[in-house]
Amino acid sequence: MTNMSKQELIKTIKPRYLKSRKKEKTVILNEFCRNAGYSRKYAIEILQAKCDYRRVARIGRKPRARIYDSRVLAAAIKIWELLEYPCGARLQPMLLPALEALTRCRELSVSDDIRDKLKAISAKTLDRRLAKERELRRLKRNRGTTRRGSLLKSAIPVRITDWDTGEIGFMEMDTVAHNGGDPSGEHIYSLDMAEISSGWSEQIAVMGKGERGIVSAVNEIKSVVPFKLQGLDSDGGSEFINWHMVRYCERAGLFFTRSRPDRKNDNAYVEQKNYTHIRQRLGYGRYDTAAQLRMINDLYRQELRLFSNFFRPVMKILSKEKINNSVCRKKYDQAKTPYQRLMESGQIGEEQKMKLKELYLSLNPVQLRKAIDEKIEKIKKTQIKQS
User: How far is CA 270 from CA 70, 176, 229, in A?
Assistant: First the structure.
């Protein structure tokens, strides 16, 4: 029986119950308990004349006292802004690690009471309390210049199965065009690469998307990632589907695959970072000078990679379940940074772990964010002057 049906039953039975004698009340009460499923004591209470069972419908529920006051929310908002506005599920596991980093760098100091509340606050509560703040920050645009390669379709296998997300070393790659909506002439492209298991990502800017330039950029990233690169996966763009890339992968011992045509979700890991790591920062304007190339690479290869990989949390999907053939219910694991996932993987050496830990302890996330914002502002000023 639904709650609405129970309300209608109470509305019908209560007047008759109040006018009945004791024996008749017993019969009515027994029938009411069987139909509504209430315990006898609760049924007697709500059928009394003084019980206002319609109170909640008339005046609403009494608001609960807020456990997390403005001081707790202020600390959470500072961490939320620092980590670039993640959802509650990604933010909640990172509150204490980020707070420890900020405290270590003397950027934030909170009492033990606020620290305990930040530890106890749930992801749903964070989403609810930060809802108004989210309304002020909305930007989502999508413009692409991917063109399929005309050669080597048979030489490069199509990846038709899901990634083994437990093994470190396989990266998806894609390019992002900075042409301002005008694809004519030579302009800068950002090569974006994302490791599947840990979420570790690297970006590098190249002038144009020539075959040799892209291979050289991939090789540079291969030399700096803190794990052994085992395989690459790309879309069908001509910057990847060429003999230079195939021969490079053969010499480096890398397994090279491509996604299916017109199936963007095959490269979902890197496609997501195209927006969060590139478009969200550099926008959709045109960059086509050597000076801009140097400035963008200075941003990518310094502060941005450190902040993204050591402090920005990522989540991995655990399962998908279709409901009514339309809604897909997804379950995710606990949000962790790529650095944390690498350290917990057991697939990198102790020497590499020590280097990563020393680097992590030397970083100040607030200073990294300030440096990122300053460099992005300078890059955009060159675009304004140029236009």
Answer: 37, 11, 16
Lowest mean pLDDT among 255-259, 318-322, 366-370: 318-322
The answer to the question of residue 90 being in a domain is yes
The model's pLDDT over 120-147, given as tens digits with 9 standing for 90+, comes to 999 999 998 888 888 766 634 444 555 4
Looking at the domain assignment, is residue 154 inside a domain?
no
Q: Which of 16, 45, 13, 54 is nearest to 32 (CA)?
A: 13
- The residue to which tokens 């997300």 are assigned: 165
Q: Rounded to whole angstroms, how far apart are CA atoms 160 and 278?
A: 27
Query: Can you give the residue range of the structural domain that contains 377?
Result: 170-386
Euclidean distance between CA atoms 51 and 211, whole angstroms = 79
> Quick check: is 115 in a domain?
yes
Measured between alpha carbons, how far is 123 from 87 in angstroms, rounded to an integer?
8
Number of Cα atoms under 13 Å in the Cβ half of residue 289: 12
- Comparing C-alpha atoms, which of 247, 189, 252 is closest to residue 223? 252
**Structure confidence by residue, pLDDT tens digits, 292-302:** 999 999 999 99
Q: What are the residue ranges of helices labelled H in 253-347?
A: 268-273, 280-282, 290-299, 305-310, 338-345
65 in any annotated domain: no
| Rounded CA separation 74/133 (Å) | 12
Give the count of beta carbons closer than 10 Å to the beta carbon of residue 339: 24
